[in-house]
Recover the amino acids of this structure.
């Protein structure tokens, strides 16, 4: 009998990569991957729990899981809030993130009627050579390390994914080359913090990007989030590594707050001035850089003035993309214990609204600058409307184009005709 499995991924690109590896390992072991819960014998929810509202959505989703299926909860939620999971959800198995080939044994045991709970310490990492089933055949998500070096006061992910464990440059190159042969054109270098890459091996992210940039083949690389303080020591070399046509001119540099006292309470080991210096240095070399950043509003100790400092910083730096999050204390974090300087929920909501309005305006202004631009675009996904496609230019700007032909994975010449809040429209030339 061939057992059927459905995998549903949530959360960050690292979690998606984990899910693609689970799918590849189960397929190799003889399981059949199906497209819906209804078709499956086993449903695997590969969960996220980085924020309070995210955890609530995960729990609500799990409560709606089909009662006649074996349910396996994987990912960060079981490691972060197992007690709640145990209390509120029916499940047949619970495992942490990045289980790799271990998923095969767990699923077999669950199908045999055993209730499996494996939440051991994250000391290992799955081999990069394990089989994967890419959710997007054009995009290969390549984890370059698991865990991080951070001790951020608000973050619970370190309790799920552990401390830094990097892959060697040779392992990463091997994975990229194999996936390129397998049809991938766009590679996402991803981890909890790419800025920490290689510090446990005596190397750094710049070395990895130099190596990837020297490979043969027509492909592009998107570099994932990096913490500012880990960029400072390799800034010039990192900019030199980005100065390669294979690397998207896309920088994800989370600032979290524009106020230095709040940054100290967050245990973010840089200042707002250092953040701006990094951005300025990148833009000096790459004027059309796409800058993405993250902001948390309402962190304990964030006064009205501190919040205004964040708005001022955003107005000065003018990022293209800003992920605004309301503060929610997460279990097992230092912020969970903070009792001084708490911000009322309604005030957090107000600040979030103000920040979101500013971000929306800044993003629209930045996108207007691209109207009239012409150049090559790699089409990496289907659009939301039938006959539309989404491509990325050298700065990773999303450009929606219309075509009756299948453009997925193709590189086309495009002219930008219109700017919108979060994307551009273009036509093939």
């Amino acid at each position: 009998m061939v057992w059927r499995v459905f995998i549903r991924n949530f959360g960050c690109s690292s979690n998606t990569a984990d899910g693609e590896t689970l799918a590849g390992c189960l397929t190799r072991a003889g399981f059949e991957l199906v497209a819906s819960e209804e078709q499956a014998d086993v449903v695997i929810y590969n969960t996220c729990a980085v924020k309070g509202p995210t955890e609530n959505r995960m729990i609500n989703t799990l409560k709606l899981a089909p009662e006649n299926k074996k349910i396996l909860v994987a990912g960060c939620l079981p490691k972060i809030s197992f007690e709640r999971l145990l209390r509120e959800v029916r499940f047949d198995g619970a495992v942490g993130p990045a289980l790799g080939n271990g998923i095969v044994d767990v699923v077999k045991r669950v199908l045999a009627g055993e209730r499996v709970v494996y939440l051991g310490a994250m000391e290992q990492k799955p081999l990069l050579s394990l089989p994967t089933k890419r959710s997007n055949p054009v995009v290969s998500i390549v984890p370059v390390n698991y865990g991080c070096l951070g001790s951020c006061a608000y973050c619970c992910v370190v309790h799920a994914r552990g401390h830094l464990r990097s892959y060697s440059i040779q392992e990463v190159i091997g994975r990229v080359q194999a996936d390129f042969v397998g049809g991938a054109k766009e590679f996402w270098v991803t981890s909890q913090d790419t800025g920490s890459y290689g510090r446990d091996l005596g190397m750094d992210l710049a070395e990895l990007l130099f190596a990837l940039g020297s490979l043969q083949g027509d492909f592009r690389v998107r570099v994932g989030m990096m913490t500012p303080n880990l960029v400072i020591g390799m800034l010039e070399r990192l900019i030199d590594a980005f100065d390669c046509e294979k690397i998207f001119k896309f920088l994800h540099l989370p600032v979290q707050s524009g106020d230095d006292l709040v940054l100290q309470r967050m245990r973010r080991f840089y200042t707002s001035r250092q953040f701006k210096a990094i951005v300025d240095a990148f833009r000096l070399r790459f004027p059309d850089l796409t800058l993405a950043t993250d902001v948390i509003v309402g962190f304990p100790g964030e006064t009205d003035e501190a919040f205004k400092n964040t708005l001022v910083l955003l107005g000065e730096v003018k990022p293209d993309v800003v992920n605004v999050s309301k503060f929610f204390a997460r279990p097992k974090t230092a912020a969970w214990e903070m009792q001084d300087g708490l911000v009322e929920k309604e005030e957090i909501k107000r600040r979030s609204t103000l920040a979101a309005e500013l971000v929306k305006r800044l993003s629209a202004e930045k996108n207007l600058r691209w109207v009239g631009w012409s150049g090559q675009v790699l089409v990496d996904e289907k659009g939301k409307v039938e006959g539309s496609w989404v491509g990325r230019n050298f700065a990773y700007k999303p450009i929606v184009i219309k075509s009756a032909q299948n453009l997925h994975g193709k590189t086309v010449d495009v002219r930008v005709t219109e700017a919108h809040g979060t994307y551009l429209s273009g036509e093939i030339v």
User: Anything to note?
Assistant: The two ends are 53 Å apart (CA to CA). The mean pLDDT is 96. The first helix runs from residue 13 to 28.
